[in-house]
Write a structure and sequence with these properties.
Elements (H helix, E strand, L loop, with lengths): L4 H10 L24 H6 L19 E4 L5 E5 L1
């Protein structure tokens, strides 16, 4: 579930869910803008989408909720 227009359109075109982690190295803080992403991550990926790279509006990290098979929910990150 996303409110980001680009991600919604990408998911629609792929015809399936898209799952990703935050663009940070474990233990480091999450990037608030594209320029905060560690260069090692950018160098390690095949392609970087040219979307909102110049956006200076700080973003919040995604929320993560685990759903158990019995329907129980656990908030991992708000």
């Amino acid at each position: 579930v996303t409110s980001d227009r680009f991600c919604s359109e990408l998911i629609k075109k792929l015809g399936r869910p898209l799952v990703s982690t935050s663009a940070n190295i474990s233990g480091m803080s999450w990037p608030k803008t594209f320029t905060d992403i560690d260069q090692r991550i950018i160098d390690a990926v095949d392609y970087t989408v040219k979307w909102r790279q110049n956006d200076k509006q700080p973003a919040k990290p995604s929320g993560i909720i685990k759903v158990w098979t019995d329907g129980t929910l656990k908030v991992i990150r708000e």
